[in-house]
UniProtKB/TrEMBL annotation:
This is Uncharacterized protein. It comes from the Bacteria. The chain holds residues 437 to 715 of 721 of the full protein. Residues 23-277 form the EAL domain.
């Protein structure tokens, strides 16, 4: 049949086997990367446009590979997830982000929250809470300066455990946000089940905001919803003034995106925070 013919073709698709070979090579090298301290974090500022303050920084991992150059997370996080490497990678990210945030505080900068992305596998670890507690303790960072970002899709596996874990983390004082909100398949009922402080409006709703009235309706509905649930809202992927203006009109005060800043190295964050607060 045509169907099996297509599968047959796909199986021998040379591009696909190249991808498998590439992934395998990546996996092997990624093992080394953790040991060799080749992972780095960049931090993207989150701004409250009403107060004009940077209140948060999202930690975004990169891999400085000696052979491959700077590799973005979309390239290696999926592989890390498939191979289980996401656990050591994720723990490294959590610890490094907390340590760095503590350093900024010790330098006398106005305190900000550091936001760390969590993977499904991390959330399913029975000892995640202990791991977070241990890191905060070790680093001496108060829980209110840490935020954990989870996507809808990672909540769909083992919902009960995920909900329990997130509630315990929330009770510890750690902030929880729902990343890429509106793009997953979860029901709105999740908003009742999980203890979110913040909804992060996915960049796909922001991208064409000035051309698409549909996107305005969606964001406006999210704003209404958030008020009912007493949650904060941040818009991601804000790239220009028009988007900022429209979001402002929709009462969305918190934003993140290239318009304010690309993700920054730790040294750049320092300068950014210093200059931003003088404006
Ligand atoms: P995300 O959590 O949705 O992060 C936002 C992504 O959008 C980042 O890409 C960021 O650089 C990019 N971005 C920020 N502002 C703009 C903008 O104005 N316009 C556009 N077009 N893009 C913008 P990045 O750093 O490549 O990260 C991609 C994804 O990789 C993240 O998406 C997240 O899902 C994942 N990721 C990154 N770091 C980690 C990590 O430490 N752990 C886990 N599990 N996943 C991570
Ligand atoms: Ca995120
Ligand atoms: Ca996102
Ligand atoms: Ca995303």
């Amino acid at each position: 049949t045509k169907e099996s013919g297509r599968n047959h073709y796909q199986f021998y698709n040379p591009e696909m086997s190249l991808e498998i070979a590439e992934n395998f090579a990546l996996e092997t090298q990624l093992h080394q990367a953790i040991k060799n301290e080749e992972l780095i974090l960049h931090y993207q500022p989150q701004i409250n446009i009403k107060t004009g303050q940077v209140y948060g920084l999202e930690a975004l991992v990169r891999w400085k590979s000696p052979n491959l150059g700077l590799v973005g997370p979309n390239k290696f996080i999926p592989i890390a997830e498939k191979t289980g490497l996401i656990l050591p990678v994720g723990e490294w990210v959590l610890k490094t982000a907390c340590q760095q945030n503590k350093k900024w505080q010790q330098m006398g900068l106005p305190p900000v929250r550091v936001a760390v992305n969590l993977s499904a596998q991390q959330l399913q670890q029975p000892d995640l809470i202990k791991t977070v507690e241990k890191i905060l303790d070790l680093v001496g960072l108060e829980p209110q300066w840490l935020e954990l970002e989870v996507t809808e899709s990672i909540l769909m596996k083992n919902t009960t455990l995920a909900s329990q874990t997130l509630h315990e983390l929330r009770n510890m004082g750690v902030y929880i946000s729902m990343d890429d909100f509106g793009t997953g398949y979860s029901s709105l009922g999740y908003l009742k089940k999980f203890p979110f402080d913040t909804l992060k409006i996915d960049q796909s709703f922001v991208r064409e905001l000035n051309q698409n009235p549909e996107d305005i309706s969606i964001i406006s509905a999210i704003m209404t919803l958030s008020r009912g649930f007493n949650m904060r809202v941040i818009a991601e992927g804000v790239e220009n003034q028009e988007q900022l203006n429209l979001l402002q009109q929709l009462d969305c005060e918190e934003m993140q995106g290239y318009f304010f800043s690309h993700p920054l190295t730790q040294e750049e964050v320092l300068n950014y925070l210093l200059s931003f607060n003088q404006q």
